[in-house]
Design a protein that fits this description.
Number of strands: 6
Strand order of the largest sheet: 1-6-5-4-2-3
Bound molecules: tetrahydrodeoxyuridine
Number of domains: 1
Shape: globular
CATH superfamily: Cytidine Deaminase, domain 2
CATH class: Alpha Beta
Length: 161
């Protein structure tokens, strides 16, 4: 028998002012992107902004559908847009923000769902480098230096031989 413990390292911040300018700008763009969300069913508007190694910022937001599972989260909308239009460029950071049904930015950071974590992980494997994740809330911001840590014991192509 052997027992293992997996650790996730992240840092909490009380305000964007504590972060470098480039991170603040990425968070600003994630917040801005919530305005273009299409969320008539959940009324939860999520925005994502990712920075590519060239400095280009790609934004995405959740796009819902009357056939609920046909919709897509903000993170995957941004990641798939980057993959579709900038396939040779590595992602260096991803910021996420969200507004509740009253349009208020959430006090606590929004964390990506499991399916988005799976896509984030494969993005890292594909590009050969990890990327940073900035999860925004008005009262607290989390910085996860290596997004792979959000999905320990993940299913990857390796499992298929
Ligand atoms: N959603 C995201 O876009 N990203 C997340 O990290 C969490 C959830 C979306 C999916 C759906 O449109 C709405 O938020 C409610 O779950």
């Amino acid at each position: 028998m052997d027992t293992h413990t997996l650790e996730t390292t992240y840092t909490g911040y009380a305000s964007p002012e504590e972060l470098p300018a480039a991170d603040r700008e990425l968070i600003r763009q994630a917040i801005e992107s919530t305005a273009r969300s299409y969320a008539p069913y959940s009324h939860f508007a999520v925005g994502a902004a990712l920075r590519l190694e060239s400095g280009t910022v790609v934004c995405g937001n959740n796009q819902e559908n009357a056939a609920y599972p046909s919709g897509l989260c903000a993170e995957r909308t941004a990641l798939f847009y980057a993959g579709a239009n900038h396939p040779q460029e590595a992602v260096s950071a991803l910021a996420i923000a969200a507004r509740d049904r009253e349009g208020r930015l959430t006090p606590q950071p929004v964390v990506p769902c499991g399916a988005c974590r799976q896509v984030m992980l494969e993005t890292c494997l594909r590009q050969g480098t990890p990327f940073r994740c900035l999860l925004y809330g008005t009262e607290r911001i989390l910085l996860i230096p290596d997004c792979r840590q959000l999905l320990p014991l993940a299913f990857t192509a390796e499992a298929m031989g």
